[in-house]
Structures are given as C-alpha cells and as structure tokens.
Design a protein that fits this description.
It is a single chain. The chain has 16 helices and 20 strands. By secondary structure, it is an alpha/beta fold. Strands 5-6-7-8-9-10-11-12 form an eight-stranded parallel beta barrel, surrounded by nine helices. The protein has a three-stranded antiparallel β-sheet with strand order 13-14-15. Helix 2 links the parallel strand 6 and strand 7.
Length: 612
C-alpha cells in the first residue's frame, strides 16, 4: 500500500503522511481537520484515512468466498514454473520454496505433477505433510494442490501425494480447443465432455472435496462448448473452474469478456470459483489476469518471477502489487491475502533455486525496478519520492541502501552483517548466518568496499545452495600461453573424506571441471555456461551459472504434452576468483543431479523412468 498523504487545500503543505504496514488495512473513515491558524479558520475539511478496519483473509471454503472482493492467489511456481528449461529443483529446494510461499500468504500452492515422476510425487507428498499442516501468519494454512490429467492413474497419484494436507486439492485438466481435440487427443467433443465429467466425479469419489478443473487452451476454444463442459463438471463436483489461456493468445478485453460470458452462461457457475491461468507468449499475462479478475474471477494462477513454460506465466509480484496499488481506485476494491513484504525474498529464492535469472528491468523485483539514473528523475526523487515511484521498495521487503547507516568492512561483526542482510530483505540466522559471515570476511580481506550487490551474490551462493554431496575445498590452477592449463581440485564428500585430482584442459575452467569429473565419476554434458561481474571494478565478484544434463538420462513426463523430457540441472557460484566461482557453480549443479539420483534410488525407481 502506498504512503497516504493529506495536503492543506489552501497552502498545499502536507498535513498527514504515513505508510500502513498491515496489507489488509482499508480506507473507510474520515479524519476531520480544522487548522489552528486563524487565517485559515474557515478552511476545515475532512480527509479519508486508513484506520481500524482490517480486511482479514476469509475462512476457506473450496467453492465459496464470503467476501466478494477477496481474490485467492494460486501459485504454480513448483509445477508450471518448474517446466522452464533448466529450472529443476531438488526436493529440499521445493520444500524451502513451499514454506516461503506459505509465509508469503499464498492461498493455494500447486506443489507439482505427482504422476510425472516418483521424485515429484515424493516432493508433493512431503510438502503436503509439512507445509500443508503448518500454521502461518494469522492462522493461515495453505491449500496443497497436485496436478493430474483426466485419467485415473494421474488422479490416484495426485491424491496419494496431497491427501496428507489439511486442505488437499486435485487439479485435473483436458484440452477443449478444436486443434487440441483433433490433433493431440484425437477425441470428439462428446468424448472430451464424458472424460472430464467422469474424472471430476472420480476425484470426488476417492475422498477429495476440493477439485479444480481446467479446460486446456480455453482461450482458443468455442465458448458454447466451454459453457457446456464446465456445466457438466460442476454437476460432477468441481469446486473451482480454471480458465487457461494456455498459449497466451488472447488480449485483455477479449479474455475479460470470456470470463464474463462464462459467468453469465454456465449453468451452476454461482456454486464455484472462477480462476484464471494466463501464459505470457504475447507479453499480456498480467494484463489478461487483471482483466479476468475485474470480470469476476476470484482465483488468479501465477508464478514467482513469472517463470514457466515458454515465455512464462502471469507474475505473482506484478499481479499482487497491481491489486495493492490500484485495487481501490480502478479494480473494484479487489484485494489479496499476500504479505507483500516477503516478495523480494521469495523472488530471490526462486531465482537461485531455479537458476533462471531475473532481468534487470523486470517489474517489481528487477535490479533496476527502484533505480534512478536520469538527472531529472534523481532531482524529483530527492524532492519527493512519489514523483517517480508509485510503490515503495519497502512494500516488497527492500530497504534502500545506507538507510541504516551501516557500512560493512573487514572489521564488521555478525550483528552488523545480519542487520544489513535484513535491510536487503533476507532473514537468516544460525548456521546459515555463520557460513555467510565467514564468506563475507574472506571477501572483505581482499576488497575495500563491500556493496549490497556483493552481499546479495554471497548470500545466494552460500544460503541457496543444494544439499551437498560434494563440497569444494580448494582449487589451484596454472594457465597461460606457454602450454596447457592444469588444475588441482580438492573436494570433500558427505562423509568428510577428502578427494584430490589433477587434470589438464584447454583453459583453467576446463581443466578444473575435468578434475572434478575425475573425482565425482558421473558423466554429464555441460549445456550452458555464463558469467557476470556483480559490480564494477577489477575486484568485482564473479557470478557463474551452469546447466548440465546427466548422460544416463533423468527423465519426467511433461504435464501438458505427455512427452518424456530430459531433466537438466542448474548451479550457481560466486567468488572474486572466476575459476573458483565456476567450480562452485559446477559442483552445485552436480549436487542437484546427484541428490535427485539418491531420491530415485531411495524409492527403488530406476533412472530414466517416468510414471505415465
């Protein structure tokens, strides 16, 4: 919520200015002001202010929301978001993200597609048991959802995974556009309707009281057919109807009309919640989502940072902040239960775990979102922040640099580091803080000035790393134009044993990677390698990202196409030495892949297999 300022009607001077911290406060009452200056004795007036009335998250009923202005946020980062190439997360990382989403205040967490692989089933089950039974701010307990195609095997797997949550949901889908029915499903309209109806009924019959149905590619489907099939699944027991613009084809006015017409023409629609799921192929996912909400949708499906299939999904942070910033004025008073001060931490966590970097100019969470370089803009900001900022960075959990007055250096202690990290939107303590502190001290010995970007890079590299199978201890390289590069690498395994290997290569990074391969003995293909300087200067920290694929072929089933896809694993590293940064990233990616392999072995599932 933006700061609230009241100006005197004659002088224009500010009289009241404050920024409410509670995201559910709403403007309802009037503040009567009468100036003490006799010159303005006849200029008493009233100011609408925020006070006392608190919008609380309504009690959860699957097919009903008591407050007509409340919008449920359905996050599918762990399912649709993970379909992005290279975005594979380990079970631990998925659990961490799910906990953060619950802390953020997400109403429904789509934890995965349990039928895609045994690993995904176990991850969803773990999230259902731990996050689905947790109690978060103001007593919030998130719904845990599993995706399933319209067949009994998928639905059984989804229920097996989510049934442990206090509020379990099954989300099943089938395509309804002519192109999908004719070429992908090879089914008639009647067959599709019967399959949808019977599978929704089946999901209800096995004990799930919260069933969501999606007509895939609804944006290109015949509206009359949509009304018919949606009416049938309502009769079969569906509690939420999700309307997906699967290929990002519609424009906002068109999508809003589609939602309005579904509400007007679908029999029984008053007994269910209408939802949106908008892809970003034309860059319209956020606009389409908001148009759907204005037309009556009361559940919005989104992902952190907008990650997802192809061009991604509607971004949670964009949709939520749009509702928070403009909800009262132009969006019909719509509001959510999201605690926006956890947005930045959620964004950084997903960025690091998925390996998908956020572009600097990304709305809300990009590095440049609250940066001002133009002289005219800087002048305006110095005079009044609202001149060029419609939302405050503090609203998403970002405190401006140097507001605390803390400047970090080699003499700084843990408390100063923790205070600075908290200012940047991160909350860490215990072992994570200790590990970060010693990395910070190491860099501070070599670098005179530690910037916020340096700290964020170290934070990401130290805290958002996968559970280690191998840990980098030392790297030593020799390189130049006089001969082959050589590298010596020391790794420590999970039992604390040291392993040392030497190798040669075409360059120092190649030599170091080959030395790591000799120790780990797991054949992989390096698909991507990229490096960026975190800050300016010769002493900048280097941030590296790699993407690998195991030659033994970890696979899973694609949720929409049913095709078998090869899993890839990303890793990130940060250090002032580019070789060390590179090796840390490579070892991180290997740890992800090997943790995934261990999970498969634990469940007696052979590599390369997938549950269809």
């Amino acid at each position: 919520m933006a700061s609230i300022t009241a100006n005197h009607p004659i002088s224009g001077n500010p009289l009241i200015s404050f920024r409410p911290k509670n995201p559910f406060l709403q403007t309802q009452t009037l503040f009567n002001f009468k100036p003490s200056n006799p010159k303005h004795s006849n200029s008493s007036f009233s100011i609408p202010i925020v006070c006392c009335s608190i919008r609380r998250r309504p009690e959860y009923t699957p097919n009903h929301i008591p407050d007509a202005n409340y919008v449920r946020i359905f996050d599918t980062t762990l399912r649709d978001g993970e379909q992005s190439p290279g975005a594979t997360m380990t079970t631990k990382e998925k659990l961490d993200v799910a906990r953060q989403l619950a802390k953020l205040g997400v109403d429904i967490i789509e934890a995965g597609f349990p039928a895609s692989s045994e690993a995904d089933l176990e991850a969803v089950k773990l999230i259902a048991k731990e996050v689905g039974n947790g109690v978060y701010e103001e007593g919030h307990v998130p719904v845990i959802c599993g995706l399933a195609r319209c067949n009994k095997k998928d639905i059984d797997k989804a229920w097996e995974a989510v049934k442990y949550a206090k509020k379990p949901r099954i989300h099943t889908f089938i395509a309804t556009s002519e192109i999908h029915m004719n070429y992908k499903l090879k089914m008639s309209r009647d067959q599709v309707v019967e399959k949808a109806r019977s599978m929704v009924a089946y999901a209800r019959s096995i004990g799930c009281e919260d069933v969501e149905f999606s007509p895939e590619d609804a944006g290109r489907s015949d509206p009359e057919f949509l009304y018919h099939i949606l009416g049938e699944v309502i009769k079969a027991g569906a509690t939420t109807l999700n309307i997906p613009d699967t290929v990002g084809y519609t424009v906002p006015e068109e999508f809003g009309q589609l939602i309005a017409k579904i509400k007007a023409n679908t029999p029984g629609v008053e007994d269910v919640i209408i939802s949106t799921h908008c892809q970003n192929d034309l860059g319209l996912s956020t606009a389409n989502t908001l148009a759907g909400a204005c037309a009556g949708a009361r559940q919005l499906e989104v992902t952190i940072n907008g990650i997802g299939e192809r061009a991604g999904n509607a971004s949670l942070e964009e949709v939520v902040m749009a509702l928070k910033c403009r909800g009262e004025q132009v969006l019909g008073g719509l509001y959510t239960g999201i605690n926006t001060q956890h947005i930045l931490m959620s964004s950084k966590m997903v960025e690091e775990y998925s390996g998908l970097h956020v572009q600097p100019h990304k709305a809300i969470v990009g590095a440049n979102a609250f940066a001002h370089e133009s002289g005219i803009h800087q002048d305006g900001m110095l005079k009044h922040k609202d001149t060029y900022e419609i939302i405050s960075p503090e609203d998403i959990g970002l405190n401006r640099a140097n507001e605390s007055g803390i400047v970090l250096g080699k003499l700084s202690g843990r408390h100063a580091l923790q205070a600075k990290i908290l200012e940047l939107g991160y909350e860490i303590e215990g072992k994570e803080l200790d590990d970060l502190f010693w990395r910070f001290k190491s860099v501070a010995e070599k670098k005179k000035k530690i910037t916020d970007d340096d700290l964020i890079a170290l934070m990401s590299d130290e805290v958002f790393q996968p559970q280690f199978v191998w840990q980098l201890q030392n790297v030593q390289v020799t390189c130049g134009s006089l001969g082959l590069s050589t590298a010596t690498v020391k790794l420590i395994d999970a039992d604390g044993q040291e392993h040392i290997s030497c190798s040669v290569g075409t360059g120092p990074v190649d030599a170091a990677y080959k030395a790591v391969d000799l120790i780990v003995k797991v054949p992989v293909t390096l698909l991507e390698y990229s490096m960026n300087a975190v800050t300016q200067g010769i002493d900048a920290i280097a941030s590296t990202r790699v993407l690998i694929r195991g030659e033994n072929g970890h696979t899973s089933t694609h949720a929409l196409t049913g095709e078998t896809v090869h899993r890839t694993f990303s890793g990130t590293g940060a250090d002032m030495d580019i070789v060390i940064s590179s090796v840390r990233a490579y070892v991180g990616a290997l740890n992800k892949m090997m943790s995934f392999r261990k999970l498969l072995a634990k469940n007696n599932k052979p590599e390369g297999s997938a549950v269809i």
